[in-house]
Amino acid sequence: MSNTITEAAVLNKTEKGLLIGGRFRAAAAGRTFAVENPATGTTLCEVADGSAEDALDALGAASAAQSSWAATPPRERAEILRRAYQLLTERTEEIALLITLEMGKSLAESRAEVAYGAEFFRWFSEEAVRIRGDWTVNPGGSGRIVLMRQPVGPCLLITPWNVPLAMPTRKIGPAIAAGCTMILKPAEQTPLTALMLAGILAEAGLPDGVLNVVTTSSPGPVTEPLIHDERLRKLSFTGSTEVGRILIASSADKVLRTSMELGGNGPFIVCADADIDAAVDGAMIAKMRNIGQACIAANRFYLHADVAEEFTDKLTDRMSGMAVGSGVDEGVEVGPLIDAGQRDKVAALVDDAVRRGAHIRTGGKAASGPGYFYPPTVLTDVPSSSRLAREEIFGPVAPISTFTDEQEMLRAANDTESGLVSYVYTRDLDRAIRLAENLETGMVGINQGLVSNPAAPFGGMKQSGLGREGGSVGIDEYLEVKYVAVGVA
Length: 489
Ligand code: NAD
Fold this sequence. Notes:
Layout: H1 7-13, E1 18-20, E2 23-25, E3 32-37, E4 42-48, H2 52-70, H3 74-90, H4 92-103, H5 107-128, E5 134-137, E6 143-151, E7 155-158, H6 166-178, E8 182-185, H7 191-203, E9 211-213, H8 219-227, E10 234-238, H9 241-251, E11 257-261, E12 266-270, H10 276-288, E13 298-304, H11 305-320, H12 340-355, E14 359-362, E15 377-380, H13 387-390, E16 397-403, H14 406-414, E17 421-425, H15 429-438, E18 443-446, E19 465-466, E20 479-487
Helix pairs in contact: 2-8, 3-5, 3-6, 3-7, 4-5, 4-7, 5-6, 10-11
The chain binds nicotinamide-adenine-dinucleotide.
GO molecular function: succinate-semialdehyde dehydrogenase (NAD+) activity
InterPro entries: Ald_DH/histidinol_DH, Ald_DH_C, Ald_DH_N, Aldehyde_DH_dom, Aldehyde_DH_Superfamily
Keywords: Oxidoreductase
């Protein structure tokens, strides 16, 4: 970390108010809420606690800015994104520190998130000038079918705490590129990164009212009136499947377009012919990125019986050797979980599995405070009846079971309501293709523990979501296709 950036300085320069119509301001009712440092359990600072009234003001600002923003030349929209990419990259150290302070992940991981998050702006700056229509001669020859793609209009973007910079940029990037205005409602645990991002976009030249930010401690009551307001045209949500279902139901009222990036329960499959060292490297990324608090985290490990012992020994070695501590300390690899509730949930899942017969190879016991630490944990012989095998863990726990029959393993891997990601390690091309085609997930990593890539479509099947973010299709979520029938004699 550059020695010119201190915690106090980065907190001091971050806005704490709502961003509405280009101005940071206090909540109308004057309320604030505390942002906590999960490594210490202490308060970092207070931010504005927006109300429904504030959110409707933000929608008013987004709605007022929509038509001029949609008419702004694509090249200008692209240049704003490009400048914001540059600024994010230049300010990696201070943004990374802010992410670590409010979310807990290590500085190295926060820096990687800044690079990943900024890349969405670079990618969508390149997409902004490539929004294409279509022109077809009617099959009967007598007319023309003309398609144009137009911005959908004001959007509500709701984002989670686990990736506080890149989840917003993955939505804001395509919305800006498409010509949509928006209201961002960041998670209450991590509002500061979103506010810093908003400041950077303003500096990059984003006009007033295009991006509005409403921080609040009561997300349901504050966003509900927006979802029932006809000026809002789109809801893009990343978070839990549970909240996603509520938002889809509310969106039915005005038949609001929705994109949903929801929870996961990813299987990590190691076949008998896999390169075990590579599989362990991949598992460390797929399991431990974000301290296991990732929708694409490997949630269940299926190891072929022939390689199970070697893989488990090597994974246990690596997991038990990780440095746990406050993310701001250089060298720390595993920070705290986001809050006491998350730490207690992880502990309860592990205890349940152990009661049902699972064996602890490393970890398995929450640290006592301060901070919400849980150690990297490996469990073997995890029965399919345990909660660990069915629920999204969101913590640094690797539950292992073994298989001998590929079809049985595939049935078990697919036996979940989630369908976000799966990982397969094998050196057999036929097997890789067979599994990739039969795993019911929106993304499959073959001999790769990391699938996130701004140039690729991210999203899930089944109850993991609707729509895709990133890649060449990511911008479609923010565009309407309009068909014009042209009569030609
Ligand atoms: P969460 O659903 O509790 O919260 C997500 C966001 O929704 C937050 O901003 C929160 O304030 C808001 N929210 C909560 N209740 C709401 C309501 N009633 N109305 C409107 N907004 C509401 O999820 P979380 O705990 O912040 O994040 C963890 C979840 O997010 C996990 O399930 C994870 O898998 C998922 N996630 C998915 C992806 C993906 O791309 N598929 C990415 C990251 C996280």
